[in-house]
Design brief:
Blueprint: H1 2-9, E1 18-20, H2 24-27, H3 34-48, E2 50-51, E3 71-73, E4 78-79, E5 88-94, E6 100-106, E7 122-128, H4 131-147, H5 153-162, E8 169-175, H6 178-189, E9 196-197, E10 204-208, H7 220-225, H8 227-240, H9 248-253, H10 263-283, E11 290-293, H11 297-304, H12 310-325, E12 331-336, H13 340-346, E13 354-358, E14 363-368, H14 369-378, E15 383-385, H15 401-409, H16 431-434, H17 437-445, H18 450-458, E16 464-468, H19 475-481, E17 488-491, H20 499-514, H21 520-524
Parallel strand pairs: 1-3, 10-11, 10-16, 16-17
Antiparallel strand pairs: 2-4, 5-6, 7-8, 8-9, 12-14, 12-15, 13-14
Helix pairs in contact: 4-6, 8-10, 10-11, 10-12, 12-15, 15-17
């Protein structure tokens, strides 16, 4: 007290304005940890604005004249208000070994919270050292969300996802609010949803959807709920501005949405959404180990494989769409539910109709409107006419091939950086095929061998297969080809579902299937969520029993902190 008073009196003549207490009265003497405990006490007092009273104080020491010092003794809880500046606290630690430490703590500047990004869905990870811990923690999470009605589910998700280290066992659930999250967390607790053990490398495949998956307003909710998606889509819009006469965002979500039925607008729109989805998944920690694409989607797959730079991808997509738009509109396409051999035989009597895509158990045919119509009427197989503006992958597309080859020839192409299935041959892309301009031009005219490419891709043994696109069109076909081994099928978006709900369902399925860690901090970045209160980890406590006491000798001593006596032995012993 004398030392503190002498130090402070060099700067102030005020009396009894600084609270003084001791943590020892609150929790006992912690020996080497006492100084740290004092620091924790100051931090908690600063956080709550209340200094706890030092217990068991009946009257101050008669040898200390508090009234002449800057200090007063806190013998009961004292509200710690703010005066002109921030709160400041100090901790003194004096050790019998000579330690004399004094730490001053100042509260940080108050930072105004920015506008919170409203979320349609929330993703919550539960991780623990074993299955028991995961279930107990999930139950605690569910109880907390149910019992504390003012809990913000976004703040809660951020807290448990980013504030808790990954452990051997893990799982994830998603929900639109507290109630749905609590329900799904309870399913973990009761064993309905099983946690998985973190495994080694799991192969992830990305399939990129082609034209026909587009629709007005696609991915609109991701634009408002996911900052990474928004940034990527805006980048695509800027890069496409010199190549489109209608802004991309107007096509997707504005007054020009009706133009998405036109090929020259549909193709850049679909590819831009796929790029933004890929970027968002990469930020979340999900990246492909192998890729393939269907028709237009193969261009996006080429970008994902490192063959094309993003500006070149978008430019070529715009050129491709415009060239195909300019071809004859007297054509159509249809899906035929039969095998390759039977369809090939049936087409002998319909020379104007060609196979546009080999998709497994179904095929797509293309040709002039009257020829395709006659085939569908006479075919013994189930057929389904497609709503398209052109006969893609038919002879009508032949005039688009040379100019597109010329456009690709002026583009820097690189060898694939990861396994990339070629839907023109059904084999893997090589450095030669991926960098051949004529190959990319021929893909406009020649059929898509998607089933063969999937068989090739299956050789990588994918554990999870994602379809990257506005609506799942490829996964139903892929299921018929990649039956064994059976991977987990994950669509990114669905026309009839909320975008973020669907995305979070996909991320949860990926996490449960692979046990691979997501980048939880990145998933919450830019949403202005904050740390809040959450249940603590359920450590596996084990009650230890004291060893049998040795027979006390004359020089044995005991202490209230010990469960059994310890003997002092002489040097001779």
């Amino acid at each position: 007290m004398e030392g503190l008073s002498r130090a402070w009196r060099r700067f102030t003549g005020r009396s009894q304005f600084c609270a003084l207490g001791s943590v020892k009265s609150n929790i006992g003497h912690l020996e080497p940890a006492a100084g740290l405990a004092g620091l924790v006490k100051v931090l908690l007092a600063m956080e709550h604005g209340v200094v706890p009273g030092s217990l068991h104080v009946r009257r101050p020491n008669d040898h200390i004249r508090f009234e002449d010092s800057p200090f007063f003794l806190v013998d009961r809880a004292w509200v710690w208000g703010r005066e002109e500046g921030p709160r400041r606290g100090a901790v003194s630690a004096f050790g019998m070994g000579g330690v004399n430490a004094h730490v001053i703590v100042e509260e940080p500047p108050r930072v105004e919270r920015g506008a919170v990004v409203v979320q349609d869905s929330h993703l919550v990870r539960v991780t623990g050292a074993d299955e028991r811990a995961v279930r107990e923690l999930a139950a605690a999470y569910a109880d907390h969300l149910t019992a504390v009605p003012d809990t913000d589910p976004g703040d809660f998700a951020r807290t448990v996802n980013t504030g808790r280290a990954a452990q051997r066992w893990t799982t994830a659930v998603h929900g639109t609010g507290r109630a749905e999250l609590a329900t799904r967390l309870t399913e973990i607790a009761d064993g309905t949803t099983q946690p998985v053990r973190s495994a080694g490398r799991q192969v992830t495949a990305f399939l990129y959807t082609g034209q026909g998956s587009q629709y007005a307003g696609m991915a609109r909710r991701l634009l408002t709920t996911e900052p990474h998606f928004r940034d990527a889509l805006h980048e695509c819009a800027d890069l496409l501005a010199p190549h489109l006469d209608v802004p991309l965002l107007d096509l997707l979500h504005g007054d020009a949405r009706h133009l998405l039925d036109e090929t020259r607008y549909a193709q850049p729109a679909v590819v831009s959404v796929e790029v933004a989805l890929t970027r968002l998944l990469a930020e979340a920690g999900v990246r492909p180990d192998t890729v393939a694409g269907h028709s237009l989607g193969e261009l996006t797959a080429a970008w994902a494989a490192g063959v094309l730079a993003l500006p070149d991808l978008l430019r070529l997509t715009a050129v491709r769409g415009a060239l195909m738009q300019g071809r004859s509109t007297d054509g159509t396409m249809a899906v035929v539910h039969t095998g390759t051999a039977t369809l090939t035989e049936a087409l002998r009597n319909h020379p104007g109709v060609e196979i546009a895509a080999y998709n497994g158990r179904t095929h797509t045919v293309t040709g002039p409107e009257q020829d395709v119509a006659r085939f569908c009427e006479e075919s013994p197989y189930r057929t389904q006419r497609l709503t398209v503006s052109h006969a893609f992958h038919s002879a009508a597309m032949e005039p688009a091939v040379p100019p597109f080859a010329e456009a690709v020839a002026g583009t820097a192409l690189r060898a694939p950086e990861l396994p990339f299935a070629d839907t023109l041959t059904g084999d893997w892309h090589t450095a030669a095929t991926a960098t051949d301009p004529q190959r990319w031009a021929d893909a406009i005219r020649r059929p898509v061998r998607f089933a063969q490419a999937l068989t090739t891709l299956a050789g990588e043994g994918p554990h999870v297969v994602w379809e990257i696109g506005p609506h799942p069109q490829l996964l139903p076909m892929a299921r018929t080809v990649l039956a064994e081994p059976h991977p987990v099928w994950v669509p990114t978006l669905h026309r009839e579902r909320n975008d973020q709900v669907q995305l979070h369902a996909a991320l949860a399925a990926h996490h449960r299937a692979t046990g691979a860690e997501l980048d939880w901090a990145a998933l919450h970045a830019g949403k202005n969520q904050r740390t809040t209160t959450a249940p603590t980890y359920p450590f596996a406590r084990q009650e230890l029993t004291a060893p049998p006491a040795r027979r006390a000798t004359a020089n044995a001593v005991s202490h209230p902190l010990f469960d059994h006596p310890y003997e002092h032995r002489s040097e001779a012993e």
